[in-house]
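Appendix B, example 12.
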Amino acid sequence: MTSGFSAADAAVATGTVAAFCTTLAFVPQLFKTRRDGGSELSSAMLFIYLVGLGLWLIYGIANHATPVIAANAASLLIVAAITARKTQTGGARARRAGRLRIAIDMDEVMADALGEHLRRYNAAFGTSVTTADLAGRHLEQWAPAIQREAIDGMLDASFFAELALLPDCHDVIRELSMHHDVYIVTAAMEVPVSFDAKFQWLRRHFPFIPTSQIVFCGDKGIIDADYLIDDRARHFAHFRGRGLLFSAPHNAAETRHQRVNSWREVREYFSRIGALRGAARRSSNGLSGEPAQAGV
């Protein structure tokens, strides 16, 4: 008696399972590409693979190999969908290529935290300390050591709720957000009770900044941005972009970084960046014979 399952049948079964596995392997990649884009995939690899699938499909048709035909037809559809998604997301990135990522600190850059701290300090100790008295120092460095615990205690949740905006801050950030991707990046870990108050303050004054672009963090080196505007130079240590030091009394002696003294200067700085980038694009398109500068 002969077995009902011949060697030829075994070969067909093996080929079918193999074809099913290699085709199914692309399905998770299809869903990942739909969710995250296809930037990690090589365009050249996808093109060569599509050509190979097309040739295998022709081979299967010519040899009446059903598993080869089915597997490669299905794979062609899946890989073509992945390629189309990569092309779409690549086009979206290209359209946004002219937009910079600008990260902005909150305290003493957007919000007058020092002014509120001085108001509370003067009220508590009957003094009349001004920002001019603090040149090169923080309030806690200037005050007597015996007062420092009280100074730290002033930074409660209510401290951050009604901070005044620094001059021109709102208008300049709105302008920047129209042309660039603006992220608010604040080191709230230093005062954990500030989270909710800071968030509510930002939503009240800057409703045009998406909540997904408000970042509470510790080390700002984790931020992937082109520029970071901050009053504390230590936050530039691990930041891979360019730091812009926003002037404050405590950083008066800092000379290592590009400085901006006001939000009007921030506006002027990025206006120059925009003009230089425009000149570079015109030059690369052959519309200008002059070499373009890379940046400021």
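The chain has two domains: 7-95, 101-113+164-276. Residues 91-95, 287-296 have pLDDT under 50 and may be disordered.
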